[in-house]
Structure formats: structure tokens, C-alpha cells
Amino acid sequence: MSLGQELAPHLPFLRRYARALTGSQQHGDAYVRACLEAIVAAPGDFPRDVDARLGLYGMFQRIWSSTNDNDEPEAAPPEGDREGIARARLSRITPLSRQALLLTAMEGFTSEDVAYLIGVTPEDVNRLVSEALEEIERQTQAEVLIIEDEPIIAMDLETIVRDLGHDVTGVAVTRDEAVAQALAHRPGLVLADIQLADDSSGIDAVKDILARFSVPVIFITAFPERLLTGERPEPTFLITKPFQRSTVKAAIAQALFFDESTVPA
Questions:
Q1: 239: helix, coil or strand?
Q2: How far apart are CA 53 and CA 59, in angstroms?
Q3: Under CATH, which architecture does the 3-136 domain have?
Q4: Using CA of residue 22, residue 27, residue 28, residue 31, what is the dihedral sign?
Q5: Model's pTM, two decimal places?
Q6: Exposure on the CB side of residue 243, measured as CA atoms within 13 A
Q7: 3-136 and 139-244 agree in CATH topology
Q8: Count of alpha carbons within 13 Å of 3, Cβ hemisphere only?
Q9: Where do the DSSP E strands lie in the chain?
Q10: Tens-digit pLDDT string for the chain (265 aa)
Q11: I want to staple 73 with a disulfide (CB 3.0 to 4.6 A). Which of 34, 145, 206, 233 is the partner?
């Protein structure tokens, strides 16, 4: 099997991580492209002493760490004030702690794997994750709209959201209901399933909402590969079903991290 064939199954999930880390599909996908270009240019530098997935993320981390103050690669142009927002957040959560949290909670790596990826000890990883979680507890709270047609999943999400200290503005099960609820009580964050009860799309519901006002969105799907191709406009934040509580917590924290409305004056 060629190196390209080994890496292909892992690329969608690397895009998920990169987008969550940068708060942008555009910036995240640019980092992934830079990573792949580096591998193609020097395949002999790809680590063969670890499995392909860990090696791929390791190459990505090398690209990320080599940039100055986490500036995006040249392929990604500026995106409004988002980078300034991120820098304001970075003054309170260090980049390394965010990486450790996302790599463990969202990508499912062990502390030992993350230690390899970011160049620290497993004990340091645990400390960094604890630091990030402590900062999340102090993060500005948001009002959350949940768009989910499966009652059990909706209840689970509502419990997680409330346990994190956020409020739930409502639970919508169709596109029209989601838009109506968003307009009636403007949320600070949207959690949206892809497929809704009346065969409508959570993506279309979000597009309708975003046409009225800006709000951070986290999509939830059982088929993440379909929304992580890098070939078209796609979600920045994505949770895979079935999800873990820690994954939802990390995704919410990261989405709010980049949201303009939650940056202190």
C-alpha cells in the first residue's frame, strides 16, 4: 500500500482538527494542504516508527508549530477580524493547551500520543488539558439553539449544554421550526444535526439563520467524511455521532473561543 493510500482515510479527520484549531475552514484546510505538500515534497521525512494516522498528525503539528505565532500559511488570506478575535482568546488559553484538549477530546488520541505530537510528556498533556478545561469553566456563557430531531439525542445535548452552564433557547426538529426559533430568540450558538425530521436539512436551516445574523455553528452527523472533503464550503466545527460528552464540551468551547461576541472588552 502506498503512503497516499495509507493517509487517505485519515485526511477528513485531520481537516476536522485543523478547522477546529484555527476556527476556520479556509485556514484549517490551508494548513492541511501545506502538510500534504510537505509530505509529497519529502516523503522520506514521513515518520515510519509510528502508525500512519499519528505520523500524519505529527507532520501537521510540525507545520503548525513552524509558523510564527500560529499565523496561517500564505495560501489562506485574512478572514475579517477573526484572527484578532483568536489572538484575544490566546491571551487566556495557550495554543498548546487548546491543541492538547482537541487532540484528546475531539480526535481521541491518548495522552501518550498527544505527548508525541506536541513534544511534551504525558504528564504535561494532562496538565495542559486541565488548564484548558479550567478556562472553559470561566468562558462567557451562551444561549444555545439545538436543532435535532431525535428526542434522546436532543435531551442528551440539552443536558450537556446546561451542565456546561449555558442556556438552551429551544429544541427544533425541522428547518422551518429552527429558523422561527432563531428569529424569536436569537441564540449565541447553534448545535445542528444534518438530517431533520421532515427530511429537511440542518445545513439549510443554518444557512437560513446565517442569512439573518451571524452565529457560531457546530454540526452533528454520523457521516463526517461527507462534510470534510475540502472541496467546497463546509462546516468549521463538526461532531461525529455517536459523540462523547468531552467532544461536545471541547467543540462548544472552541466555537465560542472564536466568536466575536464572547471576547471581553
A1: strand
A2: 10
A3: Up-down Bundle (1.20)
A4: negative
A5: 0.86
A6: 29
A7: no
A8: 13
A9: 143-147, 167-172, 189-193, 217-221, 237-240
A10: 899 999 999 999 999 999 999 888 998 999 999 999 999 999 999 999 999 999 999 999 999 988 744 444 444 434 445 555 555 554 445 579 989 999 999 999 999 999 999 999 999 999 999 999 888 888 778 999 999 999 999 999 999 999 989 999 999 999 999 999 999 999 999 999 998 988 888 999 999 999 999 999 999 999 898 889 988 889 999 999 999 999 999 999 999 988 754 444 3
A11: 34
Q: Which CATH architecture has domain 139-244?
A: 3-Layer(aba) Sandwich (3.40)
- Would you list the domain boundaries of the chain? 3-136, 139-244
Length of the chain: 265
Contact 117, 61 (CB under 8 A): yes
Q: Which residue is associated with the grid cell 476556520?
A: 24
**In the 8-state DSSP scheme, what is residue 164?**
T
User: Grid coordinates in use for 177?
Assistant: 421550526
Give the C-alpha separation, 135 to 137, whole Å.
Answer: 5
Dihedral sign of CA atoms 55, 57, 63, 65 in order: negative
- DSSP letters spanning 61-85: HHHHHHSGGGPPPTTS---TTHHHH
Tell me if 28 sits within 8 A of 236, measured CB to CB. yes
Q: Are 13 and 224 in contact (CB under 8 A)?
A: yes
Lookup: cell for 106: 475531539
